[in-house]
Amino acid sequence: MSPFGVHNIAKVGFEMGRKPGDWYGAQAICTALQTLNEKYKPFDSFKMVVCKDGNIFFDQIEKTLKERKGNGVFISVPVMLGLNAIQPEYLECLKQVFLFESTLGICGGERHKALYFVGIVNPAAEDPKLLFLDPHFVQDSNQSEPLKAWRSASTKLPIPIQNQSVPIKLSTYHCNELRTMSLSKISTGLAIGFYVSNIEQFNRFKLKLTAIAKMEHSFFSVFEKSSDSPQYLYEENLKK
Fold it and tell me: 118 exposed, middle or buried (CB, 10 Å; 0-12, 13-18, 19+)?
């Protein structure tokens, strides 16, 4: 069973008050994946930080980055940018997400259908197109050694590697059709992703995000320390 598979997500969902088949918003799925990553640790020293409601605390990210040895930190920022449609004033800030060195794109989609937005076409346009992948399109998997070790440990059964020279199926990482969607048409609940692997990259991420947070209609709120935030946010972070 995959550590981030639908069965494990459903188990965590029960603890969050969700039943199989219920819709998971951006914040709910990010929290579920963070819980699974901490529980199963499928990748060595890989950490995930969830910055709820667009509130980013740099001290938390830096602390997590210094604690890990090897892999970096996946920063997930779930936000809600409107009710039935994204508020037009947020579009300019949303474009900037794809211009980060450390961007992983956006997990979002359209109504009741999740999509993964990986790039932007002509960001200078008023309403540019986003390139997306559809996770509902099934591809053959490529087994990696860390996941094989995790699966063997979780099932208590040895998994022999019969052929060490099995080639990686690179075609499973690509698609034959270029799919796009207008930025203004994507759903309002989004999870924005970043990945930083070292302190130098974190400092560049911090500098750019601080500048974007100063935009007139930015949906990011940045804080040097958790204690710098409003009292209700500070108390919420103490519970984590």
Answer: middle
